[in-house]
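Researcher: Quick test of sequence recovery. Tokens follow.
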């Protein structure tokens, strides 16, 4: 879908958002003007045998927010933006791609590791399994603002929570049971956190509470053909590039229960010479994080016809 051009200037990385970026209406304006975007939503409806496009365009918001729906919806909208870009004449030649949690699957589509129909079915199953795991062992997540990593790691050791996302300096997300999360939030505030923000999610993602999802996802992944990445994918769990199918499959299982190393991933890409990041998909969450991680890079986004057409590399 995208071509890697190793000598390109500026050196570009394409990044893809994860759960939480969903919003009712996403993709609708794009489908009004892009045939290729419409085809992506039609392919998703067909692959899932359900009207995902209508849910994206019209809601209701509560149903769209459900993990089982939000994950395929965000992936579909992101891929629609990516395919519309080529239709609008926006040439993307990334040196690296990466995605935040769910967004890693979008990165696989961008790097031609798996086809879109397989990806949307995989993330629907991923969302289903994660939602079920959250019901079986209720938990949640919280963003901790303004507390250093060492102090928060000590809080987690004392309460039984886990660090789930290293998003950027001063913003770390933790996961755990409802009880451990409540204790962790109180303790983090007592130890100097500026803010603690409970997240609207259905479970303790990227923690040991997601272990029941691994077997089901391993089975689902085994049914899909994986190609060698045409563009290296910077992995969530290691912040290192994935360059072959076996590494990719291991990563997709590893990231379910382990921390998303987003800040180290961005730092790796900057260290590899990336000077321009393009967030592709709904929202601009990753754009904000990247700007906080590095003030020396250009950060762009593609989420609607106007922002896509504005890209000029």
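Model:
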């Amino acid at each position: 879908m995208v071509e890697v051009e190793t000598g390109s200037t500026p050196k570009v990385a394409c990044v893809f958002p994860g759960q939480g970026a969903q919003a009712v209406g996403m993709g609708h304006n794009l489908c009004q003007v892009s045939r290729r975007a419409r085809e992506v939503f039609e392919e998703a409806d067909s692959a899932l045998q359900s009207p995902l496009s209508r849910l994206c365009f019209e809601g209701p918001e509560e149903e769209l927010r459900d993990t089982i729906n939000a994950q395929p919806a965000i992936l579909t909208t992101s891929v629609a933006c990516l395919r519309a870009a080529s239709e609008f004449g926006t040439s993307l030649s990334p040196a690296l791609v990466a995605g935040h949690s769910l967004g890693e699957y979008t990165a696989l589509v961008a790097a031609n590791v798996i086809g879109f129909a397989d990806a949307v079915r995989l993330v629907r199953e991923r969302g289903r399994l994660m939602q079920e795991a959250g019901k079986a062992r209720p938990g949640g997540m919280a963003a901790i603002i303004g507390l250093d990593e060492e102090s928060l790691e000590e809080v987690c050791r004392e309460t039984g929570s886990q660090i789930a996302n290293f998003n950027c300096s001063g913003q770390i997300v933790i996961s755990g049971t409802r009880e451990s999360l409540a204790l962790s939030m109180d303790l983090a505030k007592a130890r100097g956190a500026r803010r603690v923000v409970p997240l609207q999610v259905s479970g303790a993602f990227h923690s040991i509470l997601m272990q029941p999802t691994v077997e089901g996802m391993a089975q689902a992944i085994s049914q899909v053909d994986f190609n060698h990445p045409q563009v290296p994918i910077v992995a969530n769990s290691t912040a290192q590039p994935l360059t072959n199918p076996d590494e990719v499959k291991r990563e997709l299982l590893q990231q379910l229960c382990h921390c998303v190393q987003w800040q180290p991933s961005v730092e790796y890409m900057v260290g590899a010479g990336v000077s321009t990041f393009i967030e592709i998909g709904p929202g601009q969450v990753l754009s904000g994080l990247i700007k906080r991680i590095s003030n020396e890079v250009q950060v762009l986004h593609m989420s609607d016809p106007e922002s896509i057409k504005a890209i000029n590399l």
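DSSP finds 14 helices and ten strands in the chain.
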